[in-house]
């Protein structure tokens, strides 16, 4: 929300200034939030017409569940008011809500949309700044020069060709590591519990990577619990920081 204020200027004395009224014109931008369906019937993408994540974020998105909801004031409000929500993916200019399969969108959607709109208009933090400052979790497993080169190529392909199309469908992909022909990733958001995630993994991601990097022979998606174990392992390697 922003305002442009134009004030009439006086070219005479204070007396003239006191008699002249000041003209103030306010231009107010209203938040537009589009609700988009995804390939996952239990996930909806809420597309904003403004940035959701601050420019200082070094991640493309943040996956929030009940386990780490305290890292996001918005997530806390959503989980408190709508118990059917299972996970929240907060991207650069979108938010994807995944609900449990027994809930109906006609109950979840209006509430989620109202909370998201209200929070974004308030300009409150969407993700805690101290959480963002922790940076991404990098695998420090020793690699050969060839593996380093392949890893860099994989990261570039994911960033430029794979992630944009996945985010278009309300999901995201986190690259974890490359080892002996296998690429380990985590699919997030709408991709988490989607029946088409295996097709996305094999037909889409693997085919794309193998087309450009023949050394890649398989792609493995780590489940949420395995991913959290991986993050904890990386934290221990960095000395608990």
TrEMBL record:
<dbReference type="InterPro" id="IPR001075">
    <property type="entry name" value="NIF_FeS_clus_asmbl_NifU_C"/>
</dbReference>
<dbReference type="GO" id="GO:0051536">
    <property type="term" value="F:iron-sulfur cluster binding"/>
</dbReference>
<dbReference type="GO" id="GO:0005739">
    <property type="term" value="C:mitochondrion"/>
</dbReference>
<dbReference type="InterPro" id="IPR014824">
    <property type="entry name" value="Nfu/NifU_N"/>
</dbReference>
<dbReference type="Pfam" id="PF08712">
    <property type="entry name" value="Nfu_N"/>
</dbReference>
<dbReference type="Pfam" id="PF01106">
    <property type="entry name" value="NifU"/>
</dbReference>
<dbReference type="GO" id="GO:0016226">
    <property type="term" value="P:iron-sulfur cluster assembly"/>
</dbReference>
<dbReference type="InterPro" id="IPR036498">
    <property type="entry name" value="Nfu/NifU_N_sf"/>
</dbReference>
<comment type="similarity">
    <text>Belongs to the NifU family.</text>
</comment>
<dbReference type="InterPro" id="IPR034904">
    <property type="entry name" value="FSCA_dom_sf"/>
</dbReference>
<feature type="domain" description="Scaffold protein Nfu/NifU N-terminal">
    <location>
        <begin position="33"/>
        <end position="123"/>
    </location>
</feature>
<dbReference type="InterPro" id="IPR035433">
    <property type="entry name" value="NFU1-like"/>
</dbReference>
<dbReference type="GO" id="GO:0005506">
    <property type="term" value="F:iron ion binding"/>
</dbReference>
<protein>
    <recommendedName>
        <fullName>Scaffold protein Nfu/NifU N-terminal domain-containing protein</fullName>
    </recommendedName>
</protein>
